């Protein structure tokens, strides 16, 4: 993610030709660089049409690269905001993105879905910036009123991200990442295939990571217990296909998971 932010910064650096290796652009009478460059100029006729198409393609590619870099920098900025809100959240979100992409690839998601999955996994908790710290950091079980407010965070996240062009679908996936497979989740009570596949993936990996991670009010669960709970809730809280896919690789990587979660397999057991 830091590399992406660096790429965005490089786009803002003014053009400075390397005198030793670059040709100084030819200037017009108005002081502007001649376009197209000499290397792209072609003879009139059919060749000229092909040349213009090549120039247009170059411009489109450049714009696409700038848009992609801007999208990545927006994700980085929001992820940094999560780090400022809760130092554990950034690590949590990054871990979820890695797991989510692996599950999505195994399930054959299309490229656009994978892009939205990465955003949803990284920023699924962005709505928590609207939740008071007294609730987020409460070292005890939330009461009914507090829990009702905490349940608003998917809607807050959706309300923020849907305003950004290109993030509308990811915002919808974030809105539904606390829906359950049996229709008893929130905020809309969707069930089974009504729930977007990206939301179903984030739901599983978010729940598992939450179970094995330590909180101010509790120690993280042992890996065996977290796996047992995922399997037990498969088909009710979680999509069984997503659970099976996730556990196919997660069970072999418990050491790394626990280290990232701030504990260890041995201490948890």
Tags for this entry?
269 residues; mainly alpha; Hypothetical protein af1432; 2 domains; 13 helices; disordered C terminus
Task: Give structural notes.
The protein has helices at 2-11, 46-85, 87-106, 111-123, 133-136, 144-150, 153-161, 168-175, 197-212, 223-232, 240-250, 254-261, 265-268. With 269 residues, it is mainly alpha-helical. It folds into two domains: 1-85, no CATH class; 87-269, Orthogonal Bundle (Hypothetical protein af1432). α2 packs across α3 and α3 runs antiparallel to α4 (111-123). The longest helix has 40 residues, at 46-85. Mean pLDDT is 79; it is low at 1-27 and 261-269.
What's the SSE blueprint?
Elements: H1 2-11, H2 46-85, H3 87-106, H4 111-123, H5 133-136, H6 144-150, H7 153-161, H8 168-175, H9 197-212, H10 223-232, H11 240-250, H12 254-261, H13 265-268
Helix pairs in contact: 1-2, 2-3, 3-4, 3-9, 3-11, 4-8, 4-9, 7-8, 9-10
């Amino acid at each position: 993610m830091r590399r992406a932010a660096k790429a965005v910064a490089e786009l803002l650096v003014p053009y400075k030709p390397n005198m030793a290796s670059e040709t100084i652009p030819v200037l017009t009478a108005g002081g502007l660089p001649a376009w197209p460059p000499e290397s792209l100029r072609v003879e009139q006729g059919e060749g000229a049409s092909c040349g213009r198409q090549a120039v247009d393609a170059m411009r489109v590619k450049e714009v696409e690269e700038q848009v992609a870099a801007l999208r990545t920098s927006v994700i980085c900025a929001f992820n940094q905001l999560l780090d400022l809100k809760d130092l554990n959240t950034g690590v949590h979100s990054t871990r979820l993105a890695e797991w989510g992409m692996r599950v999505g690839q195994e399930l054959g998601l299309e490229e656009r879905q994978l892009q939205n999955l990465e955003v949803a996994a990284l920023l699924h908790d962005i709505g928590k910036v609207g939740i008071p710290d007294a609730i987020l950091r409460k070292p005890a079980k939330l009461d009914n009123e507090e829990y009702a407010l905490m349940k608003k965070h998917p809607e807050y996240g959706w309300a923020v991200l849907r305003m950004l062009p290109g993030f509308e679908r990811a915002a919808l996936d974030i809105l539904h990442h606390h829906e359950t497979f049996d229709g008893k989740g929130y905020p809309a009570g969707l069930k089974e295939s009504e729930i977007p596949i990206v939301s179903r993936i984030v739901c599983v990996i978010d729940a598992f990571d939450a179970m094995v991670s330590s909180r101010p009010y509790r120690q993280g669960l042992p890996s065996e217990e977290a796996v047992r709970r995922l399997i037990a809730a498969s088909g009710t809280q979680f999509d069984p296909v997503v659970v099976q896919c996730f556990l196919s690789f997660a069970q072999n990587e418990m050491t790394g998971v626990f280290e990232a979660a701030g504990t260890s397999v041995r201490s948890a057991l």
